[in-house]
Amino acid sequence: MDILLVEDDESIRDVLKSYFLNEGWNVKETGNGKNALQLIQDFKIDLVVLDLMIRGMQGEDVCGKIRQFSTVPIIMITSKVKETDTINGLNLGADDYITKPFRMKEVIARIHALKRRMDMFSSDKLNPITIKRFNRGRFVVNFTTKEVFVDGKKVDLTHTEFKVLNVLTNTPGKAYSRYDLTYEVHGYRNIDVGRTMDMHIRNIRSKIEADPKAPLYIVTKIGSGYKFEYQPDVQLS
């Protein structure tokens, strides 16, 4: 796996790089936001570990600009601990969020979990049916191209948002708690990031629902969690 490490604290960057190399991953590194954008465009990058407090350009701005041209998974690392900071990072398209101080084993475990999910969701074995249609064809998911269409219009989802929708549409009618859904998507359950999944659901609803406050597709089942309301009406292999 090719990782881009964006961290302007050299001591932290050196430690992270050492652990990443020990895992057998290739690492490109920088402490500058503008350089990070250039590296993503110049090289094949599988995952970005992005600190928010960096030189040249704030991490939030880097994340937002990456999402304008790439769906590469992004793990934010930051000393900002307010819930609003986490929500803002996820709104910009981050896939995961780790706060400082952190344990190196946790960072490595998060990356491994995200990598497993990346591999699983890119496997044709997960979705032998490559296209599913719901609500008389008004809602279409193409699992091969990772595209979603609502009423004939393409919906732009982040990597993680598509994975959330993937899980829900592959088991329509099944309700997932935020913790179970986090496990299915990220590979771990963590009570501290339970609300993170709520934010992903809110973002998806804002893109696929005509009225996000009265959703038709992803509904909340009180006491159980989230579920996809419609069963597939047409399946193409």
Q: Tell me what the CATH architecture of the largest domain is.
A: 3-Layer(aba) Sandwich
Number of strands: 12
Content-based structural category: alpha/beta
- Residues in helix, %: 25-40%
Major sheet size, sense and barrel closure: 5 strands, parallel
Strand content: 15-25%
Give the averaged pLDDT, no decimals.
85
The level-1 CATH class of the largest domain: Alpha Beta
Distance between the termini: 31 Å
| SSE arrangement, N to C | EHEHEHEHEHEEEEHHHEEE
Could you tell me the radius of gyration in angstroms? 18 Å
Considering the protein shown, what is the CATH homologous superfamily of the largest domain?
Response regulator
- Give the overall form: elongated
Taken together, the total number of domains comes to 2
Q: Which segments are poorly predicted (pLDDT under 50) over 5 or more consecutive residues?
A: 124-128
Assembly state: single chain
Could you say what the CATH topology of the largest domain is called? Rossmann fold
Task: Record the strand order, biggest sheet.
Answer: 2-1-3-4-5
Q: What is the tally of helical segments?
A: 8
Can you give a write-up of this model?
The protein is α/β, with parallel strands linked by helices and 237 residues long. The chain has two domains: 2-121, 3-Layer(aba) Sandwich (Rossmann fold); 131-236, Winged helix-like DNA-binding domain superfamily/Winged helix DNA-binding domain (Arc Repressor Mutant, subunit A), CATH 1.10.10. It is built from eight helices and twelve strands. It has helices at 10-22, 33-42, 59-66, 83-91, 104-121, 159-170, 178-186, 194-208; strands spanning 2-6, 26-30, 47-51, 74-78, 96-99, 131-134, 139-142, 147-150, 153-155, 218-221, 225-228, 232-236. Strands 2-1-3-4-5 form a five-stranded parallel β-sheet, sandwiched between helices. Strand 1 (2-6), helix 1 (10-22) and strand 2 (26-30) form a beta-alpha-beta unit. Helix 6 (159-170) packs across helix 8. The longest helix has 18 residues, at 104-121. The chain is elongated and about 55 Å long.
